[in-house]
Each structure stands twice: as C-alpha cells, then as structure tokens.
Amino acid sequence: xxxxxxxxxxxxxxxxxxxxxxxxxxxxxxxxxxxxxxxxxxxxxxxxxxxxxxxxxxxxxxxxxxxxxxxxxxxxxxxxxxxxxxxxxxxxxxxxxxxxxxxxxxxxxxxxxxxxxxxxxxxxxxxxxxxxxxxxxxxxxxxxxxxxxxxxxxxxxxxxxxxxxxxxxxxxxxxxxxxxxxxxxxxxxxxxxxxxxxxxxxxxxxxxxxxxxxxxxxxxxxxxxxxxxxxxxxxxxxxxxxxxxxxxxxxxxxxxxxxxxxxxxxxxxxxxxxxxxxxxxxxxxxxxxxxxxxxxxxxxxxxxxxxxxxxxxxxxxxxxxxxxxxxxxxxxxxxxxxxxxxxxxxxxxxxxxxxxxxxxxxxxxxxxxxxxxxxxxxxxxxxxxxxxxxxxxxxxxxxxxxxxxxxxxxxxxxxxxxxxxxxxxxxxxxxxxxxxxxxxxxxxxxxxxxxxxxxxxxx
Amino acid sequence: xxxxxxxxxxxxxxxxxxxxxxxxxxxxxxxxxxxxxxxxxxxxxxxxxxxxxxxxxxxxxxxxxxxxxxxxxxxxxxxxxxxxxxxxxxxxxxxxxxxxxxxxxxxxxxxxxxxxxxxxxxxxxxxxxxxxxxxxxxxxxxxxxxxxxxxxxxxxxxxxxxxxxxxxxxxxxxxxxxxxxxxxxxxxxxxxxxxxxxxxxxxxxxxxxxxxxxxxxxxxxxxxxxxxxxxxxxxxxxxxxxxxxxxxxxxxxxxxxxxxxxxxxxxxxxxxxxxxxxxxxxxxxxxxxxxxxxxxxxxxxxxxxxxxxxxxxxxxxxxxxxxxxxxxxxxxxxxxxxxxxxxxxxxxxxxxxxxxxxxxxxxxxxxxxxxxxxxxxxxxxxxxxxxxxxxxxxxxxxxxxxxxxxxxxxxxxxxxxxxxxxxxxxxxxxxxxxxxxxxxxxxxxxxxxxxxxxxxxxx
Lengths: 459, 459
Hints:
The structure is a homodimer. The first copy, chain A, has 23 helices and six strands. Chain A is mostly helical. Chain A folds into three domains: 6-129, MgtE N-terminal fold, CATH 1.25.60.10; 144-245, CBS-domain (Roll); 279-458, Orthogonal Bundle (Tetracycline Repressor, domain 2), CATH 1.10.357. Chain A has a three-stranded mixed beta sheet. The first copy, chain A, has a three-stranded mixed beta sheet with strand order 4-5-6. In chain A, a hairpin with a 5-residue loop joins strand 2 and strand 3 (181-186). Chain A is elongated and about 90 Å long. The model of chain A has no long low-confidence stretch (mean pLDDT 84).
C-alpha cells in the first residue's frame, strides 16, 4: 500500500491557512481522502480545523467531522458557530449523529435537536434512550425496504430513487404493512435475477435478526458465526426498526477486546483513549483493584508470620520466595489467559470444564517437572562450583524448593484454568480471573506448600 | 435473536441417521442454516457427517465442509471417499480451497491438486507459496473485473453473467489490457447511476490497494482506517491479482488479538484451539518463558542473599515481601497493558513516549500514595488493636514498608509504561513487555528499595 505522507499534507495545509490561500486549500482538500483528512485535522488547532471544514463540501465536512477523535470534535464544537455546526450535523448519517449527541454536553444537544424536523427529533430521542452497549444504540435507520409483490425491475428502480441516503443497499428488507420482516435479500441476488422475477419468490426467509435490547457482544458473536455483513434489528413487537452493519461490529469487537485486556490487567474497563484520559481518571480506574489485591496479599504475609520459626532456623528459604511466587503466578496466568480467551471466542464452554481440568493437570506436570529439574540442577551446580558460598543449599533445601516448584505449578495451572470457568458459572466475567488475582491466590498456596514441606524435610 | 436449538436438531439428525430415514433427513437438512449445520456436524461422528454431506446439495455440502472445525474436517477427510471429497472441493470457493490445502497432509493435497484443471492447478500452487500471514495468502481471485469503456447497462449485464461465482460483486475493479488497476467502483454506484453512464466517468481513482507481500496486520489496519469492505491486492508489477474481503479481516483481527493475549501472558503464540492442542504442544509453548522468567527471578533471590543481615535482624520485613512484590507487579502490568494495547490500536506511537512518561509518573504518585496511606493506616490500626501480637511493627518498619510501596509503584508505572515503547523502538514486539516480565523486573527493584530504606531507617 502506498501511504499518503500525512505530515507533508499537514504542513502544507498549515502554511496555506497562514497565507490565506483559499483557492489552493480547496484543491488540496479535494484531493485528499476523508479518512486521511480526519487524521490531519486531529493535529490542527481547532481554529484551523474550522476554517478547513468551511472550505469543504457540506457532505465531506460532515464525514471528516464524524471521524475526528472525540477530543478534537469537542474542541471544534466549542469554537464553531452554532448555525454552521447545525449544517454539518444535518449532513451526518443518522448513527453518526446519535454517537455525536451521546458525547456532547446535554444543553448543546438539546439546542441541536430542537433544530431537527419533528419526525427526526422523535427518533433521535428514542435512540438516545437505548442502553449504551445495546443493539439499539448501534443500529441505523437508513436501510432499503421493499415489498413482496415488487418485481426485480421495480425494486431496482426503487433502490435507485431511495438508495442514495441509505447506509447500505447491499441487503434489502422485505416488510409487510405493519413493518414486520417477511424476508431479506441481497442486492447481489436482485442484480443476478431476471427483471421479471418477483421479490416474494427470490427473497430468503431464513433471517437472522437481533433485538434492540440485545447486548453488542452477543450481536458481534452472531455476525462472526453467520458471516453477516448486516443484520436487521427488531423491537419488542418484532417490527423492524433498523440495521447494524459490519463496520460498527468491527469497532465493537476491538472495544470488547480492549475491555478484556484491561480487566485481565486488573483495570476498570473504559473506552477512553490513553492519551486523552486525565491522570485522576486513569489512577481511579487502577487504584480499586490495586487496593483489593494489596489487602489480599497480606494473607501471604500472615502465612509467613505463622511459619516465622521455620524461616528463622533456615533463613536461606527466604531467598527462593521470589522464584517460587513468580513462577507460580506466571504458570497460573498462562492457563487463565488461554481459558479466558478460549471462552471469549466461544471455543471453551462450561461443559468443557473437565477437559480443561485434565489438560491443565497434565500440562502442569510436564511444565512443573521441567522447571523443577532445571532448578534442582542449577542449585546442585552452584554447590559444586562454590561449596563455601552455597553451604546452606543442603539437600533438604534443594528438594524443598524443587518439589514446591513442581506442586505449585501444577496447582497454578489447575486454578488458573478452572477459576475463569467457575466465574462464568457464577455469572461473573471470566476476565477478572486473570494474572493479577490468580498470582495473589497462588502466592499464598505456594508459601503454604513451601513451609509445610520445609517443616517435614529440613527439621 | 431467536436461537436455533442446536442440541435438539443434533439429536433428531442422529436418530434419523440411525433409522436410515433419508427422506426426512433431507428435509431437516434443507431447513437448517449452513452455519448451524457446521456447528452440529462438529458434534457428530465422522461417519454420520459423511452420510449427511452426501445428502446435501453439492454447493451446500461444500459450504458446511468449509466451516467445520479443523479437527472435524480432518476426521471427515480420513473417512471419506476420494472422489466424493474431490467433488466437494470443486464446489468450494477458491480461498476456502487454499485454506483447506494448507491444513491437509502434503500427499493428499498433491492428489487433489492433480484433479484440478491445469489453469487452476497453477494458481493453487502459486497461492500455496505466499507466506502464511501475507495479503497474498488471505486473498481470493474471485472478483468482478470491468473495462473503462463499458456503460452501466453493459456492466450490469456482465455482472449478471459473471457474478454468480464471485466472492463479492459489491466492489468492481476496472482493469486495463495489462491487468493494471485503473479505478474501482461499488455496485451501489453502478445501480444508482443512469444506464448510459460510462464506467470510466463514474469510477473512483482514489484506490487503496495492498501488495501480496504486505503483512495481514498491516492490511487489517488499512481496513479499519479506511472503513473498507474489500481491497484489491496487486503484485510486484502493480498488476491486480486478487481481493481481500472484510470477513477475512475480522478473522485476522481476532487472531492478532489472540496472539497478543498469549504473548502478554508469556506464551508462545499459536492459532490452535485450546481444546484441540495436544498436552505436549501446550506445555512446549509455555515452558520456554517460564524457564526464562524463573532464571530471572533468581536475581531477586540474590538481592535477598546480599541483604540477609538486614532480614535476620528484622525478620518481620519478610512478611511484607509478598505485598510489595505483588503490588509492584500489578501496578506495572496495568501500565504496560494499557500502553501495549494503545500501540496495537495505533493510539500511542513512539513519538508519544514523553506523554506516557509524564502521565505514568503522575498516575504512579496518585496510586502509590493511595496504597501507601491505606497500608500505613492498616499497620497502625493493627498495633493499636493488638500491640502485643504486632510488637515488631515499629515505626521504622511501618515507614519502610509504606515508602517502599509508594516508590516501587511509581517506578513500576514508569517501567511498565516505557518498556513497551522501548521494545517497539528496538523493533521488538511490545507485547512481550507485559505483566510477567515487568513483574520480574519490578520484584528486583522493589527489594533493592526495600532493603536500602530498611538499612537507613531501622538500624
């Protein structure tokens, strides 16, 4: 792919604005893709952005504006003339409009909605009420509706006259008088059929639809499972109210993945871009889990207190605590990550719990044995090379460390593999059962094993 | 969405197969969506699957077969008659065919390719040579090609006659005599234009194309950035060779995310589904990093050895090691996860390193202070409640633990935030600088801070 040199165009635009060379500006703007323009506008000052928006055609201005980062959009809005803003918004597609209203201050939104035609005003208010991550909030109303009795030729004419403003014309929806969905058919099917064919005969009645209240994650799964490009959305009375298209689903998938990454690192999930988020907001999203985990870690401390006699008699045992705790934590994180991801992708379900248990048990033995052998070998080697320095590496200590390593890795694998499934069973989000929490649990268990074995073997 | 009751259909099919009720089987099969059938087939025995494949129309059989899990497909292939397999493969779309050949044993693939027409044989061999995650390996050759001089009416007729076998007809490609791409246009544009318009006049020359050698991650970024539904793929001489469609890109995005999850949990990345992978393979993918991290953790052990005097004089310090190590590790994981994800989504770039530094420094102070205050309060409270039991919680110990907590969290945030950027700068994958590695590094640093402060404050 040939990349446009964004930096170069950015500099040129800034220079042309400074020179007030509007004629040249117009032609540079006309030559540049709206996506690239949106990226460039993000690096311009709000005043510069507004000058350029005024020089663009209304529909391209709306497209660029819809694609700015949230921060840039807010900056532009605060400097723009209300009437001009209203003109841009009129040109925006319905779902972009809704997204925009959702992120702007309530009183501005109120004034803007007041400018819309009454029919649209009602619709906008209805859409703003759909819960944040529901199918209703994702959908757009701009779809092609056909009737069963039309011929292919009549349908193509209808598409020709209605289609310009629609989000997609590639899937058409066949509705009855009460807006119930009777069938769907692709533009492909229409174009490849004879002119005289009747829609009712060539439409498909095998319809995958979603409800306005369905969660976006569920909708994304349906898209992936059925390889959909778009899906109809129906209300409580099964009347068609809108469509969701695959580009919105791509965004949902990325957002859901981002949330999972965050939860798995013990961060309260959020859509905010890292660089845009304030320090206090970022800190707030992290502190709660850090506190919970810190308090939980005091449990490991109390185990150490309980076995302080053992430690004071064989101080060398302290030296291996980081190694044991880290290895157990890492082994557990590996298992929980694979299982959480497998569940997110629908590869692992509740009913597979025994398969996971059995697999992790065996993987734990293989990995645990490998680590224990390497560790034992390393300790023996050290005493051979420098017996004086490592005089307190007695056979009892070496066996204690290696056996603990082995056992804690097996347990870490089992706990890491099963806790996400338990969470799902308890209707919690499996993603919280990831590295940080697993590590804290395994730490305590490893220490108990460690001191118990030490007690038996060394004294 | 109304879910099909898969379990119910599965039971019915099994019963009908046992009863040899082929007539009823055919009608159940005809009523069920191919995606649902694929899911059902995954739970049938290979023999049952083969019986049902024979009862399906050839093209639906090919569709179901393409959508089976890799394991089911292998099972079916080993039991199926070669000629029947060949018939199914003939019906498969070109890119599904390539995917299938890539996963099957070499000698079977050789026999199957030998059955294909010569022209296709050449193409298949060419496609099998594209590197695994390149645009070439993702693309399909089934696209609609038009000529500049055609009218809309002529084009629609051409699409009508050629379109049936094409992966998508929604984007058409305008090629010159030497197959160089002159323009692209959507079926939408064609349908919405007058019959007499000439393709050359209505096509767009603003073309986003990718090279056969471009990496799939790069291609996915282009799709996301430009909201593409499909993209043309060109060879070294800029001749068009195929297209990539958005459904393949959805899979790429999910695979790339899965790889990132795995790398961030210190697992060698792999496409294998968890339940299908063998124990030895799973263990192999985890052991290398576990060993590396275990050996690295011995560095923390050597720090403890160096300060063993401090520990033997104030054994209570050992009690807080888990708390300090876990909190530091968690704080670092949070920062590295946010930055790695931000880089994967293109929100954070190398040039933002200072913004990340400055943000993490402040977040670190806020989070560190919060944890230190809570921890200090907790320790004071314990001595007030039970002075005898917590006699060794001296002011020196309490300050040492709290100040170490504060400092190690600030450092963890900085290191966690900056190491992924350093990795990217060094052309390494930022995802390796995640929780497990960061934790090991922070452990050592926390212990050094801990013992240094203890040395100064307590003795």
